[in-house]
Amino acid sequence: MAQPYVPQEFNKEEEELKCHPSQSGSTATPTLFENMNATKAFSAAFFEDQLFDKEDDLFDEINQQLNQVLINDSQRPSLVSAFQADMSSYLSHEKLTKNSRKMQLEYQNASLKEKEYVFNTFVKDEIENISLDKYKHFLLEKILEVGLPSHKIIILDRLFQSINKLIKDLYACKVIQKGLEVMIQNQSDYPQQLDNYLNFIHSDNSQMRRVYVDKIANQIIQKSLEVLEGNHLLKLLLVLSKYILNNNHEKFELSIDQYGCLIVNKIIDIYPKQFDIQTKSLCNDIITRAIHNSSGLTRRQYANYIIQSILEKGQEIHKRLLMDQYLIQDFMPMSMDKYGSNVAEKVIVYGGSQWRTRLWEQVSISESSFKRLVNDQFANYPIQRLFEYLDQPLRQEYLALLNRLSDNNQLNNHGQIVLKFALANQNVKKYTQKIIQNDKNQQNKNKQKKQNPQSQSSKQNISNNNTQKQLIFENGLKQVQQQQMQQQFQVAMMQQMMYYQQQQQLLFQQMPQLYYQDQTYLNYGTMTQEQQMQIFYWQQQQQQQQQIFNPNMKNGQ
To answer: From the Swiss-Prot or TrEMBL record, what is one GO molecular function term (predicted)?
Structure first.
């Protein structure tokens, strides 16, 4: 029995989707997959279909934001692309920096909806990790600066939850400092967050003492000293004062620590800015303690920077107390110390002329003391600086002492260096003084010219008169020369006329019959060739001389 005929299907369902107009050469409308303009709408629709199979509320919320923001707002894709940029570790520093800056710029220029979406999608669950990243932590600082208040509160809370870990990280520490600035500027907006931070910073325990001497974490203390005010600053200073040149049970000292001394320097910086009496007196007490202990601090590796800071940025009353009662008397032994020599140089640089004179009197009290300082491996540096800042008469005494030691062969290698420096500096000093004196003289001359405009105008009138006289003299000289040339021309003409008259008489004597026929007629054809050439030359000379006195004449006209 024959099988029934089954028609063959040429277009199966699985092959139907493969039959795109672009592949078959057809001119039909492109499919949804090939239409790039419809990709966004199709992705949203496809995403919406898949959403019904999900029961996750968070996913549903994100999808709603996607439909409301991404599809309706044309600026959203650039912001999302900025946050989706590749921030892998294998990228170069320039590429990562560029991506980070783009994220900050896009966020700053974004609308409220965009900021809301980006924060919930990319930032909210990654605050700790972002704050620890070398390039992304700038984004958190930007959000704390221009973001929404609700986002700032979330960030500040999350930072405080992990503050013990984040405060010792270089990048997270910067984010915490930015958060502190924001809280201080708007205390009413973040009362709970500010209280949490102040309770942490005012605590007095072993954990905070580790923060004081940590390489990174002590920056938070310095920032707090800089931005806190009133009672908040006073509480922090009371805690710190226990560990700055004070006897305490823990035997913990900040002034001699590598990073703790930076906190003391910050107290010296903020002292002039304080208006509260209690805070100012407490800062003054800490600085005074440092001055009274200057003999020991100047010889410590890190504590000597505290004394240098007082000399550079301290108040005049503190500087005068430090110089008069301690550093001048201790200058020689301090100069021969490895760390004290740095302070001795600052004494010379930032001290006044009266203190330098006193230092020179102490240094030059005897030749042996001066010799010790010059030949010392550390003291020779402040001694060189002293010569550089001394007045000219004292510099002459300094050079005389050096030359005497050099003549007696009492200078070692360090002393020879001091001698060469002094001689070179002396020559440079003379040259610069000469240049300065020349500049002063030039300025005085300019001032005199400005103050005496009448004398300047009279000088100009005299110079104008001289030029006029010179022009008159030159014109007169030209006229005299022209008259002399005219007289010479006339004399030459008379000589030529006399010569040709003589020639005519000779011709008449040779041919008398011509003379009797017509006395006015002269047959030049009867002249010799030599006589005709002489007349021709005489006519040419006459024309040339006339052109000299009459330049406008051309060709004898």
So the answer is: mRNA binding
Give the closest residue to 235 by CA, choosing from 204, 210, 189, 209.
204
Distance separating alpha carbons of residues 244 and 241, to the nearest angstrom: 5
- Per residue in 262-275, pLDDT (tens digit) is 999 999 999 999 88
Assess contact for 255 and 261: CB atoms under 8 A.
yes
Contact between 236 and 224 (Cβ < 8 Å): yes
- Asked if the model's pLDDT at residue 246 lies above 70, the reply is yes
Alpha-carbon distance of 39 to 18, in angstroms, equals 18
pLDDT in tens, 4-63: 544 444 444 444 444 444 444 444 444 444 444 444 444 445 444 554 444 556 656 665
> Residue 100 and residue 83: Cα distance in Å, rounded?
9
The single-letter DSSP state of residue 208 is H
Q: Report the distance separating Cα 49 and Cα 43, nearest Å.
A: 10
**Which tokens hold the place of 22?**
């672009």
Which residue carries 């590749």 as its tokens?
86
Q: Is residue 238 exposed (0-12), middle (13-18) or buried (19+ Cβ within 10 Å)?
A: middle
Q: How far apart are CA 383 and CA 389, in angstroms?
A: 10
Q: Is the pTM of this model over 0.90?
A: no
* Predicted confidence (pLDDT) per residue in 295-309, tens digit: 999 999 999 999 999
